[in-house]
Amino acid sequence: MNSGLKCPECSSENVYHDGSLWVCPDCAHEWNPETADGSSGADESGVRDANGNLLSDGDSVTVIKDLKVKGSSLVVKGGTKVKGIRLVDATDGHNISCKIDGIGAMNLKSEFVKKA
């Protein structure tokens, strides 16, 4: 486990590599060492899906869980593929604008989709 890295939160040397991130088992902090300040990357520009992939306008995404449509009895089923998304800056957390077949135009939160 001697990677030469230390946890930026607690300075522990017990860190391990997990996918694209490093994890500290002592304080449960996760970080990407490629970022300049060692932060978790939440302040990086761009919208990321549930798996951490960067999304851009025109991408296709898949809904990962059933979502109730506010104000109606409709449900967007998990596994629904949405094509041609647009990224928007919304204050309510809904940062994807799209059209879903059978439902129409709506906004989604990026944490409930994955890149297709």
List keywords for this structure.
116 residues; N-terminal domain of TfIIb; three-stranded antiparallel β-sheet; 31% strand; Alkylphosphonate utilization operon protein PhnA; YjdM_N; YjdM
Compute the CA-based radius of gyration: 18 Å
Number of helices: 0
Major sheet: order of its strands? 1-2-3
Instruction: Show unreliable segments.
Output: 38-43
Oligomeric state as shown: single chain
Provide the succession of SSEs: EEEEEEEEEEEEE
Percentage of helical residues? under 10%
Measure the end-to-end span: 34 Å
CATH superfamily membership of the largest domain = SH3 Domains
Overall shape = elongated
Q: What is the count of β-strands?
A: 13
CATH topology of the largest domain: SH3 type barrels
Provide the domain count. Answer: 2
- Biggest β-sheet, characterized? 3 strands, antiparallel
Content of β-strand: 25-35%
Do you know the CATH architecture of the largest domain? Roll
CATH class identity of the largest domain: Mainly Beta
* Mean pLDDT metric: 84
Structural class: mainly beta
Structure report:
This protein has 116 residues and is an all-beta fold. The protein has 2 domains: 7-38, N-terminal domain of TfIIb (Single Sheet); 60-115, Roll (SH3 type barrels). It has strands at residues 16-18, 21-23, 30-31, 47-48, 54-55, 61-63, 67-68, 75-76, 81-82, 86-87, 96-100, 104-108, 113-115. A 3-stranded antiparallel sheet has the order 1-2-3, with no helix packed on it. The model is unreliable at 38-43 (pLDDT under 50).
